[in-house]
Design a protein that fits this description.
heterodimer, A: alpha/beta, Rossmann fold, four-stranded antiparallel sheet, 14 strands, 27% strand, B: mainly alpha
């Protein structure tokens, strides 16, 4: 439904996003996770045809954002960070205006308005001026506007900001209910939110995608396994494959600088001794060996902490968590 | 409702639920009424003087004494009033962050620009229509030629359209409404003042070009009752140019 290929956006000398590539299947909910200024909003603005990418292509429902903006815009419901509401309108007048703007008329418009008012529980305030509504209600009006024309793609920029806990749960339920029939991208910097509603998480930092996986696999990969970092002085070319042969080792990733490898084994096992023996037996030159442990929050923080020259996610995990929690053999 | 109509309706609503139209309209009509009154009284004095000098029945020409002066003064009044009407059109959208929403709606920039222009022009035409009360009342007491009145109103409508399009351009340039208003004051005053430059240059080519660029001579001819294609072309082409520039400015904001 959404295909983003190598998009880069530069503002003058500043690179807001750098070669971002991802895709969202039909009916999938994707979370864009990252700290403020990571490039989430920029990516969304490119997808909604608000601004063009400097390089790369973005496609929504098969239409190119740069060449066929009207076709893309018709198929997108977008909620920017600040709900785009006009204070001097009542809720239903505003929704009528939005519907007209999208070329909806007659019955389609009336039923669209009724449905979105019902979905977002705006019935009580439908005849009140938006200017008099609370932040939470305005946010919901912003969402109602996005689902009004029942678009196949929804792009939500921090949809739960400013809501109280009850409303947050309601909005999450709504997003979950939209999954299946709609493709949703939502940005957030709240981790549990991503885990709660999304099938897939893209972690973005400093304009780059640093990790992409399902929340389950992310946490499985990053939390439910022991990680050991090993640095070898003279690694042979097939080092990675050979390390994989150590009994009990599930995955091996290579990391920067050259010679550093990240090994995973099942939770509760300590394979440092085996690894050390293996490396020494092969006479590769063992420089460093340490365990790494972290929570998903740690992962997020470490992945998104910007540091010059750090590009490999696994490497940054090794670098940062290693400093905090290491056990050097 | 088509998308353009939706934009027009939304802008009109914006004008009428906020105090802008009421305040601007009241002051505009008050000034128009006051000026009319002053010119009529002044014309009365002149008629009395003429009667004393000539001893007979002097012909009181309202076209020359009242309407021409009144329409000529309107240049300045419109220059002050109209930027206040246009300043919110784009600046407010940016401030309220609804600009992004408009730009991501399936509606072209030209439709947005056209919708906004038409809405403010309708408001202005409404105000202008209300001033028709002045000639209507004067008609009861005196005879005058209606043709220069019609051309004068045509001139005001065209001049107003030009001013509004300049104001729209200014509003697209900034997110601050005050800055937008001052920008349009500035641009309009400059267009006005260069007519003086044109006069100074005299009958040279450059002088003629500069005089043509300013709205002064075009408006004056309409107020005097002359409809010249040249003037109509001037107003329509400058209007189109301003709307085109507005389109470019709005479009360019996407690239920043």
């Amino acid at each position: 439904m959404i295909e983003v290929h190598n998009i880069t956006k530069r503002y003058g000398n500043i690179t807001a996003i750098d070669r971002v590539t991802f895709s969202v299947a039909k009916g999938e909910v994707l979370a864009f996770l990252g700290p403020n200024g990571a490039g989430k909003t920029t990516t969304m603005r490119i997808l909604t045809c608000f601004m063009p990418a400097t390089e790369g292509t973005a496609r929504v429902a098969g239409f190119n954002c740069a060449d066929q903006p009207m076709d893309v815009k018709r198929r997108i419901g977008y909620v920017p960070e600040t709900p785009p509401v006009y204070q001097e309108f009542t809720v239903s007048e505003y929704l009528t205006f939005v519907g007209n703007l999208r070329g909806m008329t007659g019955k389609a418009l009336t039923s669209g308005i009724e449905q979105s008012i019902e979905k977002l529980a705006l019935g009580d305030v439908r005849h009140r001026l938006i200017g008099n509504l609370s932040r939470g209600y305005r946010q919901r009006v912003g969402l109602a506007q996005a689902v009004l024309h029942d678009p196949p793609v929804l792009i939500l920029d921090e949809p739960t900001v400013g809501l109280d806990p009850k409303q947050i749960i309601e909005i999450r339920e709504l997003i979950k209910s939209l999954a299946g029939s709609h493709s949703v991208i939502l940005s957030t910097h709240i981790l549990p939110e991503a885990t709660a509603v999304c099938q897939r998480v893209v972690i973005i930092s400093g304009g780059r995608i640093v990790a992409e996986d399902t929340p389950d696999q992310l946490s499985a990969r990053l939390r439910h396994s022991e990680k050991i970092s090993v640095t070898i002085k003279n690694p042979p070319d097939d080092c990675l494959a050979k390390l994989q042969t150590i009994p009990g080792i599930l995955h091996v990733f290579s990391a920067q600088p050259t010679g550093t490898f990240l090994l995973e084994c099942a939770l509760g096992q300590d394979k440092r001794d085996e690894i050390a023996r293996f490396v020494i037996a092969n006479q590769w030159g063992l420089l460093e060996l340490r365990t790494i442990s972290m929570t998903l929050e740690d992962v997020f923080l470490q992945l998104t902490r910007h540091e010059e020259g750090v590009s490999d996610p696994v490497q940054s995990v090794v670098e940062h968590t290693g400093a905090a929690q290491e056990t050097t053999l | 409702m088509t998308p353009v109509q939706a934009v027009i309706a939304k802008e009109l609503r914006g004008y009428f639920v906020s105090p802008i139209v009421y305040v601007v309209g009241a002051i505009f009509l008050l000034i128009f009424g006051l000026l009319s009154y002053l010119y009529v009284v002044f014309a009365g004095y002149q008629a009395i003087q003429l009667m004393q000098m000539q001893g007979g029945q002097a012909q009181l020409n309202l076209n020359d004494l009242v309407f021409r002066n009144l329409f000529a003064s309107m240049r300045f009044v419109l220059l002050i009033i109209l930027p206040i009407l246009t300043m919110r059109l784009f600046a407010e959208e940016r401030k309220l962050r609804t600009f992004e929403f408009l730009m991501t709606s399936p509606i072209g920039i030209n439709e947005i620009v056209a919708g906004k222009f038409v809405s403010v022009f309708l408001v202005f035409l409404g105000l202008l229509g209300l001033t028709g009360l002045v000639p209507a009342v004067l008609m009861l007491f005196s005879d005058f030629d209606w043709n220069p009145i019609w051309t004068g109103y045509l001139g005001m409508a065209l001049l107003g359209a030009l001013f509004l399009s300049v104001g729209l351009l200014a509003s697209a340039m900034t997110e601050n409404q005050i800055v937008a208003a001052f920008l349009s004051f500035g641009m309009l005053l400059i267009i006005w003042l260069i007519s003086g430059l044109g006069t100074l240059m005299g009958d040279t080519t450059l002088g003629q070009v500069i005089s043509y660029v300013s709205f002064m001579e075009h408006y004056d001819r309409l107020v005097r009752g002359l409809i010249d294609t040249k003037d109509l072309v001037y107003f329509f082409s400058s209007l189109v140019l301003m709307l085109f520039l507005t389109h470019r400015v709005v479009e360019s904001s996407r690239w920043k």
